[in-house]
Design goal:
about 70 residues; mainly alpha
């Protein structure tokens, strides 16, 4: 499947979106909200894995090398 890249401004996107019928605008709002929540949770989860990069957290590598 080929990808198309559009060079449009935020104002142009907003102008297009505001032309949608109310029902579709509400549906799009729900979809955008769900995506934003997913992105926020992913960013939050990333902070929980930062400790894996600490030098003292190489216990699994040490076990693998010893085996």
């Amino acid at each position: 499947m080929s990808h198309v890249t559009l060079n449009v401004s935020l104002e142009q996107v907003k102008a297009l979106i505001f032309q949608l019928p109310a029902r579709e605008l509400l549906e799009l709002g729900d979809i955008i909200e769900e995506r934003a929540e997913t992105v926020a949770m992913m960013k939050l989860a990333e902070t929980g894995f930062q400790e894996w990069f600490d030098e003292g957290e190489d216990i699994y590598d040490a076990e693998a090398q010893a085996g």
